[in-house]
Structure formats: C-alpha cells, structure tokens
Design goal:
By secondary structure, the chain is of the alpha/beta class. The protein has nine helices and seven strands. Strands 1-2-3-4-5-6-7 form a seven-stranded parallel β-sheet. Strand 2, helix 3 (about 70-75) and strand 3 (about 80) form a beta-alpha-beta unit. Helix 1 (about 10-20) packs parallel to helix 2 (about 35-55) and helix 7 (about 160-170) runs parallel beside helix 9 (about 185-200).
C-alpha cells in the first residue's frame, strides 16, 4: 500500500523497485489529496508499478483506495473499498465485471460478510509499523478463522519478513504492507526477503 507519509521522498521510485523485486499488488492510498492532484499521483504510481512489472517480467495489479472514479480514469485493475465507500456491486458496474475489488475488514465476521469481494484486508494482525495503533492486534488465530470463510484474506498490520511466513501458514492468501517495504533502507532486498518468506509459507 502506497502512503506518501511512509514512502520517503520518491514514492514512485520505491514502488517501481518493489514491484521489480516481487510485489504483485499495489494499492494507491492517499487521503490528503483530491481532484487533479490525486489523479496525477495515482497515474504516477500506476505507471511506476507497471514499469517495475515490465522490468521483472511479472504481473502486477494496481488498485485505488476508495476512489472508483480515479481507478477508472487511470485504467487501474480495481478499487479497494472502505467502510464508507460504495457497494461492491456498484463498483463492479462502474469498473466492469473483471475489476479486482477488495475491502477492509477488522474482524472475522466482516471478512465472512465480504463474499462478493475478490479479497479482504484483515487488520491489524500485529501492531502496525507505519502508524500508531488504534485497534488491538487480532493475532494469527483470528486470521486463521477469517481464512476459513472462503474469502481470500490479505494479512495487514505489522507484517514483517519474520512473521509473514506465519501469516501464510495461518491461511492468508498474501500480505498487505506499507512500512515493511517503504520504510526500509533497502527496498529491493526487503521485498525479495518478504517474497521469499511468502513463497516458503
């Protein structure tokens, strides 16, 4: 997830490097921008992600947090919906039946209710790295229960190279990170280590 507060002075460069090193889903998450500035930022991040994918010969999906209109404008792969966002069905009608749509969840019940989504972020599994904790960590048992719901679950919150493998073994389809990569002094090697941990998990 790309948050300018946790991406250093050149978020596009960090995203390009991370995708080239193994990131396969980029979420543009920027709540402080609007209008033309948000559109320009999303275009820049999407372009950087696609360049990174071309360099690695791998695929990447780009989704935009909350803003289906921005996702449509930049030809993103989909949108990530928050609790106050549009309904999943409305997003699919706007973006098309192949749109990749995710939702935010903070409990097992919320994941289980997201049956129309392609994936759900469940957070926080561990205390977050890139911001102050506002909720108690759910832990691996809750993650395992959510994964049994039938919705693909991405573990979010405090995910590191050291615990990503445990998250996958608990049933996560993947992980969603901001600080682990974007706050790293070495984006490439951190991404590669995280990718390796996921593959082994």
């Amino acid at each position: 997830m790309v948050d300018r507060d946790a991406a250093g002075p050149d978020p596009a460069r960090a995203v390009r490097a991370a995708v080239a090193a193994g990131v396969d889903l980029v979420q543009v998450r920027e709540r402080r921008l609007g209008g033309a500035r948000l559109l320009a930022h999303a275009q820049e991040i999407a372009a950087a992600a696609r360049r990174g994918a071309r360099e690695s010969g791998a695929a990447v999906r780009v989704v935009v947090n909350r803003r289906a209109d921005i996702a449509l404008a930049i030809a993103a792969d989909g949108v990530h919906l928050g609790f106050d966002g549009m309904e999943i069905g409305d997003a699919r009608r706007l973006l098309g039946p192949r749109a990749f749509i995710g939702v935010s969840a903070h409990s097992v019940a919320e994941v289980a209710a997201a049956t129309d989504a392609d994936y759900a972020h469940l957070a926080p599994i561990f205390p977050p790295l890139s911001k102050r904790a506002t909720r108690p960590a759910l832990g691996l048992e809750a993650l395992a229960a959510a994964a049994r719901s039938g919705v693909a679950v991405l573990a979010q919150g405090g995910i590191t190279v050291e615990n990503a493998r445990d998250a996958c073994r608990a049933g996560a389809a993947g992980v969603a990170v901001t600080g682990s990569i974007l706050l790293s002094a070495d984006v490439v090697n951190t991404t590669r280590a995280l990718r390796d941990a996921l593959n082994r998990g």
